[in-house]
Specification:
With 464 residues, this protein is of the alpha+beta class. Helix content is 42%, strand content 27%. The strands form two sheets. A six-stranded antiparallel beta barrel has the order 1-2-3-6-5-4. Helix 1 runs antiparallel to helix 15 and helix 11 packs antiparallel against helix 12. The radius of gyration is 30 Å and the shape is elongated. The chain starts with a helix and ends with a helix.
């Protein structure tokens, strides 16, 4: 009986020791390094014909609006011509449905526009996960983009006419208010006919000079849900045969309020910033934050609220835990209804649990590619300053796929660290000892205790 108690105590002790030695999560840099290769840009191109009701402009109501604004500013003692026009434009944009109403005439225009989103590769043969609304021609925000593109000539003419009345050019905020307001009007009356959708996935690869450049690959839709408030997930299949970089899918049910999250994607404002070179557009952007809450959608399924910054273009991109595993898709944010502006820190992700439903529906089994595992092993060695061994692994990656993103950069950095004498490589017995230090400590301690027990039992036996 005493022997059984001792073994139980020893087991509990060993388990507790092992638990206390669990590895902590990765740094943001490590998560980005491992997952940028498998994070992709989604381009959905829509072509066809769109129609909308020609607007009737209520001139009398606009005259009253102008008079009211002028009287209010003069009463406040703040009247200036610029302030008058800024106030006029804001009031018009906020109540566009009052001043622009539907007429009986219809206008038709040809459409050829491309929508931007993000996604990630989850199998070596190129299955990609993104949001349904990124590839959906009937989604409300997509229709508004259609309207802005198709009826841009009319909208631009209205802007030019108003600028002539103002006697000056509109500033960026004023121009955006008019464009957004009129695009919204056209989207409300828009009819989409025979729209053809083509999907392409942009993957960052290593170019001739080592920089990350864009490789565009056609894709086919496999399965999809419905845009928010539906289960906003779509699965695409890349149509060229390659061994693709991949990302792991994790378990969102283990996430709690306050847990860190990491978002990779292609936010339009940063990806296509006018001051950024075209060579930089193929590299994903990382933002970080925390889980703010777990919320219920009206359909009864969960979403995670996060405070990490996401915006247009991030949709469909991977949101990861501190192990670098995908626990959801960056999907939708919040807006200030009065100002019509995004509110950062109030963003939501469709969890991996929902993604797995669609993977199952499409008969897709997530799997890490061998080359991603090899690259990951090289990164782990690099982080431990075992640069010589990391160099061997990186050369293997390079030999298997010379265009694997970032491999040239790390080959150069690794060689530089070796030349500086920074390698902390180990071999032979000490290598084995360091790899298995925890197991040896527990096993050695257990062996010592067992030997002591045997000695004590023998002494008791002799005494008896």
């Amino acid at each position: 009986m005493q022997m059984k108690k001792f073994v139980l105590i020893l087991f509990v002790f060993c388990c507790a020791t092992a638990k206390g030695q669990q590895k902590s999560g990765m740094s943001p840099r490590q998560i980005a390094e491992r997952n940028k290769p498998g994070t992709v840009m989604i381009l959905a191109t829509f072509k066809g014909n769109v129609s909308a009701a020609k607007p009737y402009i209520d001139e009398s109501s606009l005259t009253v609006l102008a008079q009211n604004i002028k009287q209010q500013l003069e009463a406040d003692g703040t009247y200036t011509t610029d302030l008058f026009w800024t106030s006029y434009i804001k009031s018009f944009a906020a109540n566009v449905d009052k001043y622009m109403t539907r007429s009986n005439e219809t206008m038709s225009e040809e459409l050829n526009t491309t929508m931007l989103g993000s996604g990630f590769v989850i199998t070596p043969d190129g299955y990609v996960v993104t949001n349904a609304h990124v590839i959906d021609a009937d989604e409300e925000s997509t229709k508004q983009s259609f309207a802005q593109q198709a009826f841009s000539k009319i909208i631009n003419e209205d802007v030019a006419s108003l600028e002539q009345s103002m006697g000056r050019k509109m500033n960026e905020e004023e121009s955006k208010a008019i464009v957004d307001a009129e695009s919204w009007y056209f989207s409300q009356t828009l009819t989409v006919d025979d729209i053809q959708a083509d999907y392409n996935v942009v993957i960052g690869v290593t170019g001739k000079k080592g920089e990350i450049v864009a490789m565009t690959i056609p894709a086919k839709l496999v399965t999809r849900g419905n845009p928010i408030p539906g289960k906003d997930v779509a699965i695409l299949k890349l149509q060229e045969k390659h061994i693709y970089p991949t990302i792991r899918i994790g378990d969102d049910t283990q996430m709690s309020t306050g847990d860190p999250v990491y978002v990779l994607g292609y936010p339009g404002v940063a990806t296509f910033h006018p001051l950024i070179s075209e060579e930089s557009m193929a590299e994903a952007t990382l933002t970080t934050g925390l889980v703010s809450a777990r919320k219920k959608m009206k359909g009864g399924w969960d979403v995670l609220q996060i405070d990490a910054a996401i915006t247009h273009g991030n949709s469909g991109g991977p949101v990861m835990n501190d192990k670098g595993e995908v626990i959801g898709l960056a999907t939708f944010g919040s807006a200030d209804e009065q100002r019509g502006q995004e509110v950062q820190g109030m963003n939501f992700i469709v969890p991996a649990t929902i993604v797995k439903e669609f993977l199952k529906k499409g008969s897709v089994k997530p799997q890490m590619s061998d080359i991603s595992l090899l690259y990951e092993e090289a990164m782990n060695l690099f982080d431990k300053s075992r640069f010589k061994k990391a160099l061997e692994k990186l050369k293997e990656v390079k030999s298997q796929n010379p265009a694997f993103p970032f491999v040239d950069k790390f080959l150069e950095d690794t060689q530089t660290n070796i030349d500086k004498g920074l390698d902390k490589g180990e071999n032979g017995f000490m290598d084995f000892v360091n790899k298995n230090k925890l197991a040896l400590m527990i096993g050695g301690g257990a062996l010592v205790l067992i030997l002591l027990l045997v000695v004590v039992l023998k002494r008791k036996k002799k005494t008896a």
